[in-house]
Amino acid sequence: MSTIAENIAKVGTRIREAAQACARQPETIGLLAVSKTKPASAVRQAYAAGVHDFGENYLQEALDKQHELSDLPLIWHFIGPIQSNKTRAIAENFDWVHSVDRLKVAQRLSAQRPAHLPALNICLQVNVSQEASKSGCSPEQLPALAAAVKGLPNLQLRGLMAIPEPSDDPAQQSAAFALLRELQESLNLDLDTLSMGMSHDLEAAIAQGATWVRIGTALFGARDYRSESTQETSL
Ligand SMILES: *Cc1c(COP(=O)(O)O)cnc(C)c1O
Fold first, then answer.
1. Which residues are paired to 173 by β-bridges?
2. pTM of the model
3. Residue 217 CB less than 6 A away from ligand 1
4. Does the CB atom of residue 199 touch ligand 1 within 6 A?
5. Could you say which DSSP state residue 28 is in?
6. 173 Cα to the center of ligand 1, angstroms
7. In this structure, what are the phi and psi dihedrals at residue 54, rounded to the nearest 5 degrees?
8. I need a surface site. Which of 106, 169, 197, 227 has the fewest CB within 10 A?
9. How do beta strands 193-195 and 155-161 pair?
10. Which residues 6+ apart lie within 8 Å of 118 measured at CB?
């Protein structure tokens, strides 16, 4: 078994145990493998071990990888910050976007979604930790943004996404995830998706209702942050 296949098995066990601990069905929690900075060969190994959904943050890197992997039926999720001049390529090449945080970006994605493709699945990213440096709309902005996005023709509003401030304190992790769940419930829009939980806090996220956990490090190992920042600035 490759290391990646072993890691997938371990993460699968963590997901199942976390689901059992809160009496949820493990099948209701999707594993989104975050492959940013990792080569196409790593995605191929993960696919061979049963993963179909992959998350990428940097557009050019994602397009290159998609090209190399076009023989596989992968489902691609864009999870990084979105510059509005990048929306066309995102609308054309992804199945999901988790990081929509303003109406202008949503309007462009809807207008630029090719007619032959199904509606683009959308999560609205919410800043649940009120950190000035993080992207995401504020909880106060969310209801108006959600109502407007719900009305766009070529998007399917699925739910909410958050990247809380990293914390080792389970109570603090849970509070941030619970806030996202409560915000989703209070919208009353029949949403089915909560994209929350990463390598270090997936258990807390699952306990609060996560339907996608976005896992990078625990599957593919630590990232080389020098190349990550190079890719970011080269966009
Ligand atoms: C990088 C990234 C992840 C994965 O984080 P890990 O801690 O490596 O599991 C998840 N979500 C987003 C939005 C990311 O940018």
1. none
2. 0.94
3. yes
4. yes
5. G
6. 15
7. -130, 140
8. 169
9. parallel
10. 156
